[in-house]
Structure formats: structure tokens, C-alpha cells
């Protein structure tokens, strides 16, 4: 029996069947004890748990936000990148699912072994390149005959974009992405064996009026050393790093030696732009303070003290009379 809740009519029908002999209680117990057979496809080996896939999804959601910011700044147009799905499939199935001619960027991510593949739909790649070259971001699909200049522009762009991958993984492992290969035909690319399990993260990408997909393919061999870190327990635990006493002492010493600018403000004044443009040598600007009023002493740009001007050993000086009271900055002293 399953754990679902039965209605009153179903309960009554079950009791009636048992009482009339249509259903045997012993047979029901035997059915519960029998082992359920679950079909398992060895070609689609599930080597990642749902918990680990969720962790990978979170990492790539962060990466999608970083990519959105990067491309928005580079292209000066509307860019939106979001995670569409995260699945584990055989490598062969992934290769069959992408276009026959597409943009393939192969990265190494030391210290992890193996390679990661960034596949970019040609519509997105050409829209991106057209925008970078000063166009409106229109897309054409002639990926089979890329020129050397187009190849260089695309590879450089995606290499710089993939630098954000390092920041996305920073909480799990420190990696250094390096572009190792640039291809357009998936058939010429063999990163792992056909039956090797890979995680494919699909990113919905919109650049201006052009939409398409970017896929990140991560083989199991790359993630194997850090699989324990992809559990929810690792994400939820808060690691508090306590500083050693000698580190605190050095920090305090550096703070005490830090130089901060101190300014004695004689006063302020407001004039129009026209008067400012007419200023000449010998003109006088009237300030908002009397000559016998105390000065405001600022540390950085924050008023901290009240003082009076004077001289010490023939040098101009200010004597501190009091602290500045009140205001939002009073608690920062």
C-alpha cells in the first residue's frame, strides 16, 4: 500500500471487500513485503544526487547573474541570462543534442582535472559579435566559414566572459579557467568517452532582440574531487575563521599608523556660476562665519571637533576645544 490518504468511500469499499472475501489481507501483506523492481539504464548512470544538482544550479545561477552584468557592460544593450535546466546525461547524448555547427569553447579549470565545455548557439554568438563591432546586434548563421578575425573576436570575448566562472565557484573551490580550444564542429571534439556522465547546465540567453541557448558541459571527472562540497550540509554550515592574536595585533598596529587628512574649515560660501566666471585676482569672497567664531575640524570629510586657530612655534595650528555632538556620524568616532 502507498502512503496516500484514502477517502471515506475508498475505506468503506476496502473493508467491504475484506469482509466478503474478495480481497485477502494476507495477500496484501505479502505484496507490501515484495521488493519493488526499478528499471535502471546503465547508459544513463545517475552519478549525482538531486541535492548535488541543486547545488550546481545555485552556482550557475550566480554565474548567470555575473554574465548578465559582464555582457551588459560590454555590449551596452539589453542582456538577460538565466538558468533553464540542469541535467546529468551521457556525453554522447549531449553532443547529439547541440547543432552540427556551433561555437564550442573548451576550458581547463585547474586545480581540477579534465575540461569544461561552453557551447554557444550561433545566433547568440553572431549577435554578440555584431554588437561588439558597432552593429545593432543582428544575427546571421554562417558558422561553417568563420574568418580568422571573427574566430579571434569570439574566442577572446568568451574567454574574458568565462573569467566570471572563477567568482561563481569561489565558495566551493578556487579555480583558474583557461581557454584551451575553440571549435565549431562537435564531431571533432572528444573530451570524454561517449558513456561518461556529464552535467549540462542550459542558460537562456537574450541579447537585444536575439534569443538562444548557452550550454555548460561538466564531465563527472572534473567534479569528482569536490562532490562532497556540493551537499546541502556544506552550503548551510557557517565556517567562522577566528583571527590569531598576532594577526589582530598587526591589524591594530597598521590602523594606528594609518594617515588621515585633518582639515580646519574656515567657512563656506555660495556664489552663482556667473560670479564664479567673473572672479579675478584681488576679489574677495565673504564666508558664512565671523572671525571670532570657532572652526569645524574635519577628519576626512566628517566633522569631528571644534577648534580655534593659532600658532605654535611660528606654525599655523588649531587647538581642539570640543567634540562635535549629534548627527549620524557621532557614533563613528
Task: Briefly summarize what is shown.
This protein is α+β, with helices and mostly antiparallel strands.
General description of the model:
This protein is an alpha+beta fold and 333 residues long. It is 34% helix and 24% strand. The chain has helices at 8-20, 25-33, 50-75, 91-97, 122-132, 148-161, 164-168, 220-223, 232-236, 245-257, 273-277, and strands spanning 79-90, 103-108, 115-120, 178-183, 197-207, 210-219, 262-265, 295-299, 302-312, 315-323. Strand 5 (197-207) and strand 6 (210-219) form a beta hairpin. It starts with 7 loop residues before the first helix and ends in a 10-residue tail after the last strand. The model is unreliable at 327-333 (pLDDT under 50).
Architecture blueprint of SSEs:
Blueprint: H1 8-20, H2 25-33, H3 50-75, E1 79-90, H4 91-97, E2 103-108, E3 115-120, H5 122-132, H6 148-161, H7 164-168, E4 178-183, E5 197-207, E6 210-219, H8 220-223, H9 232-236, H10 245-257, E7 262-265, H11 273-277, E8 295-299, E9 302-312, E10 315-323
> Which percent bin holds the helix content?
25-40%
**In percent terms, what proportion of residues is strand?**
15-25%
Q: How would you spell out the order of helices and strands?
A: HHHEHEEHHHEEEHHHEHEEE
State the low-pLDDT regions, or none: 327-333
* Average pLDDT over all residues: 81
What shape does the CA trace take?
A: extended
| CATH second-level architecture of the largest domain | 3-Layer(aba) Sandwich
Give the number of DSSP strands: 10
Biggest sheet record? 6 strands, antiparallel
Major sheet strand order: 1-5-6-3-2-4
CATH class category name of the largest domain: Alpha Beta
CATH superfamily of the largest domain: CheC-like
Q: In CATH terms, what is the fold-level topology of the largest domain?
A: Chemotaxis protein chec
Rg: 34 Å
Separate helix tally:
11
The CA-CA distance between the termini, in Å, is 70 Å
Q: Total domains, how many?
A: 3
Secondary structural class: alpha+beta
GO molecular function: cytoskeletal motor activity
Subcellular location: Bacterial flagellum basal body; Cell membrane
Membrane topology: Peripheral membrane protein
InterPro entries: CheC-like_sf, Flag_FliM, FliN-like_C, SpoA-like_sf
